[in-house]
Design goal:
With 78 residues, the protein is of the alpha+beta class. Helix content is 40%, strand content 13%.
Length: 78
């Protein structure tokens, strides 16, 4: 909830472990499940290391906040 997120989009899966994780997320968020081909598709070959992949995907998934001062005001206690 750090970014004011109330809704999380995930890929639909039959995996019992995955279902448990999605259920845990539902305790705090609205979880929207999508068919595997509905989420962001990767063009080209993805990087071998996860952090390289994350650095490329992060701006697409979570754009930077436009006004950093506004988030500071939200995070501070009165």
């Amino acid at each position: 909830r750090h970014y004011g997120v109330t809704e999380i989009h995930v890929t639909r899966s039959r995996s019992p472990a995955y279902r448990r994780h999605a259920d845990q997320l539902r305790a705090n968020f609205i979880v929207v499940e999508h068919a595997p081909d509905e989420l962001i598709s990767w063009s080209g070959r993805p990087p071998r290391r996860f952090m390289d992949l994350w650095k490329e995907a992060l701006p697409k998934l979570l754009p930077p906040e436009e006004d950093a001062g506004a988030s500071a005001a939200v995070d501070s206690d009165p």
